[in-house]
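Appendix B, example 12.
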Amino acid sequence: MAMENPRITAEIIEAQEFPDLARLYNVMAVPKTVINGTVQFVGAVPEKTLLRRVLEAIGEELAGEDEKEEGVGGTTTL
């Protein structure tokens, strides 16, 4: 997403090289994704799940979704 949209930034951190950050975000396995410091998940996820998590981090949800993912709120149209 960060490569396609200049309004999105991404950082990749090597947990072993930055142990303080790894402790801060409780990194026990990689890959671990942290979005805006609030939404976190471990492992590779499907694109739609990643989009849901990004929207969750900004308080939005996918428009037209019948099944809501736990913790997702708000509405947006993509």
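Residues 15 and 21 are 7 Å apart (CA to CA). The first strand starts at residue 32 and ends at 35.
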